Amino acid sequence: MSAPPKTVLEVSQEEAEAIRQAVRTADVSTLGERRERAELGHVPGLVALLSDDRVSGPIYDLPRPIGVESVTRWVTEGQAQALAGEALLIVSLDAAGEVAGYSRITVWPDRSAAELAGAMRADLQGRGQGGPGMAHSFGWIFETLGVRLMCLTAALDNIRVQKGIDGAGFVRMGERDAVRPDGTIRRSVYWEMTRDAWRMRHRL
Ligand SMILES: CC(C)(COP(=O)(O)OP(=O)(O)OC[C@H]1O[C@@H](n2cnc3c(N)ncnc32)[C@H](O)[C@@H]1OP(=O)(O)O)[C@@H](O)C(=O)NCCC(=O)NCCS
């Protein structure tokens, strides 16, 4: 289960409602080429993608076991959460229209905060797309959804994603126990970044 950031911001009802509305209406095609909100038609592609342990192994908040039923429920819940302004489940498609990756953005409007998790198909990993892709997503989340804080976690041995997150300027704030849907714990590196710090870094 995704957990909100350690830092707690004071957030007005107006700000929280604006974030909910931004999540409901966000045009995810502005996040990147061939990005779509996940829907039931993507379930077979998502099952194929996530059945590969090189893709889903490092991610703590996926439904398990991966299968048509669990992924259907996950997509449906994601759609309901998007309507509530509290999450976006996004697929990226390859040139052939196959699901080649996914991102899940969890949003806490009343905390003005968000978390990102995601993965790309194994044949696309390790080609230098992850770092720039993550940085682009972080900027999109701050500027399009309007949150003022992001938190991230990664497995202690997931060096690739740790490099991408450190490289984007997120600040390490110790470790955290990430809780899987089955209740088991994964010890994780924990980071935060504020929108102000992001804008300073990128001179927005
Ligand atoms: C995490 C993920 C998105 C990263 O994307 P990627 O395209 O594979 O990563 P990159 O090729 O951009 O590499 C990122 C960094 O790790 C480094 N790296 C790549 N393979 C590495 C390895 N085996 N050991 C150590 N460092 C490695 C790269 O040199 C790069 O470092 P740099 O930023 O200093 O240049 C992708 O690997 C993935 O989907 N993994 C499975 C799911 C996952 O772990 N998701 C993250 C948890 S939320």
Lay out the secondary structure:
Layout: H1 13-25, E1 35-37, H2 43-50, H3 53-56, H4 68-83, E2 87-93, E3 99-108, E4 113-120, H5 130-145, E5 149-155, H6 159-167, E6 171-179, E7 185-194, H7 195-202
The chain binds coenzyme A.
The site of coenzyme A has 22 residues, from strand 4, helix 5 and helix 6.
What does this protein look like?
The chain is of the alpha+beta class and 204 residues long. The chain has a single domain (13-202), classed as Gcn5-related N-acetyltransferase (GNAT) (Aminopeptidase). Helix content is 36%, strand content 26%. It contains seven helices and seven strands. Strand 2 (87-93) and strand 3 (99-108) form a beta hairpin. Helix 2 (43-50) packs across helix 4 and helix 5 crosses helix 6 (159-167). The structure holds coenzyme A.
What is the distance, rounded to the nearest whole angstrom, between the alpha carbons of the first and last residues? 33 Å
What's the arrangement of strands in the largest beta sheet? 1-2-3-4-5-7-6
The CATH class is Alpha Beta
Biggest sheet layout: 7 strands, mixed
Instruction: Tell me the β content.
Output: 25-35%
Number of helices: 7
Number of domain modules: 1
Second CATH tier, the architecture: 3-Layer(aba) Sandwich
CATH superfamily placement: Gcn5-related N-acetyltransferase (GNAT)
Query: Structural class, judged by helices and strands?
Result: alpha+beta
Helical content, roughly? 25-40%
Mean pLDDT: 95
Query: Could you list the spans in which at least 5 consecutive residues all have pLDDT below 50?
Result: none
Radius of gyration: 16 Å
Could you give the order of the helices and strands? HEHHHEEEHEHEEH
Shape: globular
Number of E strands: 7
What are the distinct ligands in this entry? coenzyme A
- State the CATH topology: Aminopeptidase
